[in-house]
Amino acid sequence: MSEEIKPGEDVEQSTEAVAEEVPPVSDVSTEEATAAASETPTAGSDLSDEELETNIVEMIKTVYDPEIPVNVYDLGLIYAIRINPDRTVNIRMTLTAPNCPAAGFLPGQVEQRVRTMDEVTDAEVELTFDPPYHPDMMSEEAKLELGFL
Question: Which pLDDT tens digits describe the chain residue by residue (149 residues)?
Fold first, then answer.
């Protein structure tokens, strides 16, 4: 494809020859490029959203409230997990109380654990107190562990 240009040769002529071999770039709008980029496969993209959500839940279950021997998922602190097409993950969670001592680190731990997953490009946790936490939000396993059953 590329020829060696010898001293004294017309560089412009050689450039024209190369330009003829290169296909033209199509006019693609920024919106189209962004849409195409979001459809580009990423690590772990062979997983369905349901499979990825199951893996995310398993990762979240490795985060424990230090005052309660139950993971934050089974405690009912995770309200929503949203997986975006680009494999970024948004998690909405709460705490047992607004003045919970773990408020300074539990959301960050959830975010960091999910972020470490190969199948996820990024993660963000949103903390909310609406609706307020209630022990009825716990899983059956958590209720059993804590003596609620």
Answer: 444 444 444 444 433 443 344 333 333 344 544 343 344 344 556 889 999 999 999 999 999 988 888 999 999 999 999 999 999 999 999 999 989 888 889 999 999 999 999 999 999 999 999 999 999 999 999 999 999 88
E strand or H helix at 36: helix 30-39
Beta strands at 122-127 and 78-83: parallel, antiparallel or unpaired: unpaired
7: left (phi over 0), alpha (psi -120 to 50) or beta: beta
| Cα separations in angstroms, 122 against 9, 22, 66, 114 | 52, 36, 25, 8
Burial class (CB in 10 A: 0-12, 13-18, 19+), 4: exposed
Alpha-carbon gap, residue 140 to 145, rounded angstroms: 9
